[in-house]
Amino acid sequence: xxxxxxxxxxxxxxxxxxxxxxxxxxxxxxxxxxxxxxxxxxxxxxxxxxxxxxxxxxxxxxxxxxxxxxxxxxxxxxxxxxxxxxxxxxxxxxxxxxxxxxxxxxxxxxxxxxxxxxxxxxxxxxxxxxxxxxxxxxxxxxxxxxxxxxxxxxxxxxxxxxxxxxxxxxxxxxxxxxxxxxxxxxxxxxxxxxxxxxxxxxxxxxxxxxxxxxxxxxxxxxxxxxxxxxxxxxxxxxxxxxxxxxxxxxxxxxxxxxxxxxxxxxxxxxxxxxxxxxxxxxxxxxxxxxxxxxxxxxxxxxxxxxxxxxxxxxxxxxxxxxxxxxxxxxxxxxxxxxxxxxxxxxxxxxxxxxxxxxxxxxxxxxxxxxxxxxxxxxxxxxxxxxxxxxxxxxxxxxxxxxxxxxxxxxxxxxxxxxxxxxxxxxxxxxxxxxxxxxxxxxxxxxxxxxxxxxxxxxxxxxxxxxxxxxxxxxxxxxxxxxxxxxxxxxxxxxxxxxxxxxxxxxxxxxxxxxxxxxxxxxxxxxxx
Length: 528
Known about the structure:
Blueprint: H1 2-23, H2 28-33, H3 66-70, E1 79-86, E2 89-96, E3 102-105, E4 109-112, H4 118-129, E5 137-144, E6 147-154, E7 160-165, H5 170-176, E8 189-192, E9 198-201, H6 203-209, E10 223-226, E11 231-237, E12 243-247, H7 253-259, E13 272-277, E14 285-290, H8 295-298, E15 307-310, E16 322-329, E17 335-340, H9 345-351, E18 364-367, E19 381-383, H10 385-391, E20 405-408, E21 419-424, E22 430-433, H11 440-446, E23 459-463, E24 466-470, H12 472-476, E25 492-495, H13 505-526
Parallel strand pairs: 6-10, 11-15, 16-20, 21-25
Antiparallel strand pairs: 1-2, 1-5, 3-4, 6-7, 8-9, 8-10, 11-12, 13-14, 13-15, 16-17, 18-19, 18-20, 21-22, 23-24, 23-25
């Protein structure tokens, strides 16, 4: 009974101790039963956990690149969470790094975290506890970053001390002051660092070009000053963002057009104007016409209060939906064709059924405005349609205009250039008329087809003095068309004879019998 009373008397103390330990996230077993460091040579636990940084999305964290997260160095004011897992261990504790830069972990002691990354702190914990806890895993997570104070002066809405998350950029500090006033300069912002070094920042470079050097990260104690607005120029008319812009010395209309996001498609750049003001009360000015379609006009330097106007074209060209074109001469279907806007000579040949065999494709003539009676005696263009149709030279694929007349003359080239010559092991070797769009198999069949002794695997096609092999066996016997090439006028096809060809089974028998007879006659002479 006395023992029971003694234990009951100690119960409040035990509960208090247990409560304190539980609050720290540490079980009594961890606090009391961590084994001592093993002797040298003991097996260390596997450290296969990759370090990571986890950021609470509800916190203000100024990380905008993976490198900034990975290389972030902890310091006073940062908040981190330490997690430890082992067989008999579950530890989770959140720390705000104190002024000394060290945190305290039970059974470990003080851990220096100042100016170290979370990965480095995690590695340190694994080294210090790895030999004492089997299967230990650890993570150090960044929960909240520290804050820094910067000073914003000049023409902003609320100048003064601004508190921002560490690694914040200039844009964050300006936004927290309410922004730059209309009379403040966004192109000559001064940033002075704690070491006295200064830099002048052009906000237009960040807004228009995405240059992060114009929107740098801030450090504690930085001073930002927004000076009065500099030279102002107005641009109006056919631009995407008309309005007033601050210009630096020696900037030109080319720069101004860039800031205004360029001229619209309706802009009459050759009719632009610039107005210079001669006095401060805007009572006197002179205006000059500018041709901004030329580099010299866009290179004009700007002065304070200049006004540039780019008018829109008063007449807007509305393209016709249809184009009427006539083709005559050596095509399969002469006549007038209606094409949609943008159709080309290749499209016209396709609708006309292609050229005839003896068409002179190298000198196709195109006359403009023929259908309206305005045709001249000389063609406006002479096109090499042979290169277009057979060599895929798109430089010859001209766009058809309304009223065009296309004349396809007869072939002025030698006869050899308008036929296909098929020789060798075919039924009817010789010249075959060229046909637009016909392939190797078509000409082999037109020549009577390959003979039984033809070696189709080594067919030769010669074009313009150059020869190359074609496996016609795949085409004629297997039905595969990957090598069934489209031939061009003047091509020569040669089908060789198979070296091992035997005409029929009787020839095989006769050959064998003859060989046996010779062997029987010779054998007595050899004494065998």
